[in-house]
Amino acid sequence: MAEDRVFAGIRATGRQHIGNYLGAIQNFVALQDKYPCIYSVVDYHSLTTLSETDELKANVFETTLDLLAAGIDPERTILYVQSHVPEVAELHLILSMVVPNGWLLRVPTFKEKARAQPDNVNYGLVGYPVLQTADIVLYKANKVPVGRDQLPHLELAREIVRRFNRHFGETFPEPEAELTNAPAVVGLDGTNKMSKSLNNHVEIASSEEETEKRVRSAVTDTQRRLRSDPGRPEVCNVYSLHEFFDPEKRPWIYEQCTTAGIGCVDCKGILADAINDFFRPIRERRRELEADPDQVHAVLAEGARRAAEIARPVLAEVKDKVGLPPRRES
Ligand code: SF4
Known about the structure:
Helix content is 53%, strand content 7%. The protein is mainly α. Helix 1 links the parallel strand 1 and strand 2. The structure holds iron/sulfur cluster.
């Protein structure tokens, strides 16, 4: 039996925020101790949203900086940029021939994107899950770190694999979920998932001052108007964020909040300090990498080389199985 192999794609959205870190990146780092891992900064995927592409090159670089600074270890793990291994585009094309349109048109995220960008409902949006499947199976990866909310996407990849294997013979393993305990991190607005587009986030790369400023703007218990009012930590997102960065202090904060022992300004100050303490070594490493872009590009080049080494024979096997004639050198 082939060895387990993890694959995850990370959207090239640029500087990652602390929600990305808690929800995904820290798990990618931990998985390196359990499995061989392949992580791809998926830039082709960004082309489905034209508004993201002006800064795509810079975003790929910034995303890579965050991943490396957070602990993705290029000695053990293959880290590369999706478009640097173009075999994935060829596999995407071949897989697209076995996927019924109906499967893709009913994907909820396609419908959401189509609503969000009605002037640009492009083919790539429809084919997104096929490209995602190609990303995974190009390396015959059998483990994909996902949260429960992403299970339907993975199920579609599994259906595509089953259909391909049925038509052309056993080729790909069905990718399984490596379920993560990814917390849903609510943004500083206290309502929505932390997200760059909603500007309710703190970036991993933020300075300590920026972090303090952002955390100071967080929405808390909206019924607590005066410093002397007791608060309700159970409805306050600042309190939930304390869980991630300073869990031992939470009982004390609960007690202080409910007795008006501390005010929200003090509480946010404690949270900002905890976030800054937590990310200080990561930020330091990030600054070092940022100052040496050649080193970062070398990591990506070596990652693409190693990824292509795995991808090429897999693509050759696929082309043979679907009946494409081999190219012969003259
Ligand atoms: Fe929230 Fe802290 Fe204010 Fe209580 S003291 S409402 S936990 S910010």
